[in-house]
Design goal:
- The complex is a heterodimer.
- Chain A is of the alpha/beta class.
- Helix content of chain A is about 40%, strand content about 25%.
- In chain A, the strands form two sheets. In chain A, strands 6-7-8-3-9-10 form a six-stranded mixed sheet, with helices on both faces. A four-stranded antiparallel sheet of chain A has the order 2-1-4-5, with helices on one face.
- In chain A, a hairpin with a 2-residue loop joins β9 and β10.
- In chain A, α3 packs parallel to α5 and α5 runs parallel beside α6.
- Chain A starts with a strand and ends with a helix.
- The longest helix of chain B has about 40 residues.
- By secondary structure, chain B is mainly alpha-helical.
- Chain B has a single domain, classed as MetI-like fold.
- The chains are: A alpha/beta, B mainly alpha.
- At the A-B interface, α2, β6 and α3 of A face α6 and α7 of B.
- The structure holds adenosine-5'-diphosphate and magnesium ion.
- Adenosine-5'-diphosphate binds next to β2 and α1 of chain A.
- The site of adenosine-5'-diphosphate has 11 residues of chain A, from β2 and α1.
């Protein structure tokens, strides 16, 4: 589904990504972790072309992301993405947030789009909030709406960039529960997260990044039982302590 | 000797002054509409990653902000009428002063509007554009549906304040002998030898209108202050 081969990216003399390669198969759930600034967000944003990269290749569902001839908008319409800061559109109601891209990008009819949006809103447990505006919802609720908004586009895979990092601790689980359910339904997912409980529950593989490199890319069993690199060991020790 | 005020020529002058006010408001309105539309395009060019576009916009904005408005109006008064007359094959005596004043104002004010709008666009978090693109929207759709509506909502007080300044600035069209509100007051005062009274009256009208408008802006600002 997603093949990342030898991707490198730099800002001037600073290498953000160094020769990164990995594959995400259909239905797989991959958790990407690593220290802050290691390039996790950059890597995941390369997958849907939000960040350009200088060398290497990324193929999503048969389409090369880096190819200048690729219609990126068309590709992105079917690659869901969830951001750390939710990025709901604050000037639109929840219903409009869910419908707008379906209508403007996929060309669906307004009522069809609203129908679909409301179904997904129900699925993330927020049907009663349809008429509200994002500012009236809690962070956890906003993030669930953001997930529903991405799902409304019928994505072939979902990218998550630290979806729970901006949340108060008591709201983390409501978002992870939605993500877990999604994983169990067979959605292909690439999740940047430090929620190791989530990783243990649903991940197939864990990728550990450090200084722009993919240092570990292992089954979750192998990763948690016995991380190979010292950096990953230190990281795990620190994060599991908290 | 104390100057003796004589306000008697004002009531009779009201129709002329009213016509002048209509001209002032017309110029203001056109300049606001064109200023916002062209200013938005300039702001988007300025923020664009396409170098020639951003250079052009930067040059335009800096040029118009570095010359006095009176001078721009004079240029347009002297040059544009002939240019337009040639372009459309109009008879040479067609009165194009209003049109050229409007064009001059609109182009000048666009430079100021574009700076306000640029700040407004930049006030929208970067993640909003990323979210739009991640949903498959094109740059144009993202701007139109998500970024600009938020930018304009943040900018309403500044845009209105600029509109008030613009309305005052319309008095500068007197250089083209165009009968706007100020020009009309001046003409009547000159004709009746009551310049002081007419200019005081005109000043009072400007003050009342602009003061009321800026109170309104303050009120709106309070009411719609982002939480
Ligand atoms: N536009 C940019 N210009 C220069 N450096 C950047 C830019 N964006 C990100 N970086 C740098 O790239 C590195 C990786 O960033 P990021 O992918 O956000 O890391 P992570 O998500 O793992 O915390 C960081 O060191 C960051 O400072
Ligand atoms: Mg990050």
């Amino acid at each position: 589904m997603i093949q990342i081969s030898h991707v490198s990216k730099n800002y001037g003399s600073f290498d953000v990504l160094k020769d990164c390669s990995t594959t995400v198969s259909k239905g797989e759930v991959i958790v990407v972790c690593g220290p802050s600034g290691s390039g996790k967000s950059t890597l995941i944003k390369c997958v849907n072309g939000l960040e350009p990269f200088q060398s290497g290749e990324i193929i999503v569902n048969g389409t090369s992301v880096g190819d200048p001839k690729t219609n990126l908008s068309k590709l992105r319409a079917h690659v869901g993405m969830v951001f750390q800061n939710f990025e709901l559109f604050p000037h639109m109601s929840i219903t409009q947030n869910l419908a707008i891209a379906q209508v403007k990008v996929l060309g669906r009819q307004q009522d069809e789009a609203i129908d679909k949006g409301l179904k997904l809103l129900d699925r993330v447990g927020l049907k009663a909030h349809a008429h509200k505006f994002p500012g009236q919802l809690s962070g956890g609720q906003q993030q669930r709406v953001a997930i529903a908004r991405a799902l409304a586009m019928d994505p072939i895979c979902m990218l998550f960039d630290e979806p729970t990092s901006a949340l108060d601790p008591e709201m983390v689980n409501e978002v992870l529960d939605v993500m877990t359910e999604l994983a169990q339904e067979g959605m292909t997912m690439m999740c940047v997260t430090h929620e190791m409980g989530f990783a243990k529950r649903v991940a197939n593989r864990v990728i550990f990044m450090d200084h722009g490199r993919i240092v570990e890319d292992d089954s979750k069993e192998a990763f948690f039982a016995n991380p190979r690199s010292e950096r990953a060991q230190q990281f795990l020790a620190k994060i599991l302590h908290h | 000797m104390v100057y003796e005020f004589d306000w008697s020529s004002i009531p009779g002058a009201l129709p002329i002054l009213w016509d002048g006010m209509a001209v002032s408001l017309e110029i203001t309105l056109i300049a606001i509409v064109v200023g916002i539309v062209w200013g938005t395009l300039l702001a988007m060019m300025r923020l664009s990653s396409i170098k020639p576009l951003s250079l052009f916009a930067a040059g335009y904005v800096n040029l118009f902000r570095a010359v006095p408005l009176v001078m721009v109006l004079l240029w347009f008064f002297l040059i544009v009428p002939r240019f337009i007359a040639d372009l459309f094959g109009l008879p040479p005596n067609t009165d194009l002063r209003l049109a050229s004043a409007m064009i001059g104002f609109a182009l000048f004010e666009s430079a100021y509007y574009s700076e306000i709008i640029r700040a407004g666009i930049q006030s929208v978090p970067k993640g909003q554009m990323a979210a739009c693109q991640a949903l498959g929207m094109t740059y144009g759709q993202a701007m139109r549906l998500v970024i600009l509506p938020q930018a304009f909502r943040n900018m309403v007080p500044l845009l209105l304040t600029q509109a008030i300044i613009l309305f005052q600035d319309t008095s500068l069209v007197y250089v083209s002998a165009l009968a706007d509100f100020f020009g009309s007051a001046y003409k009547v005062g000159d004709r009746d030898g009551r310049l002081v009274e007419l200019l005081l009256f005109a000043g009072l009208v400007y003050f009342v209108l602009c003061f009321a408008a800026s109170m309104l802006v303050k009120h709106l600002q309070k009411k719609y202050q982002p939480a």
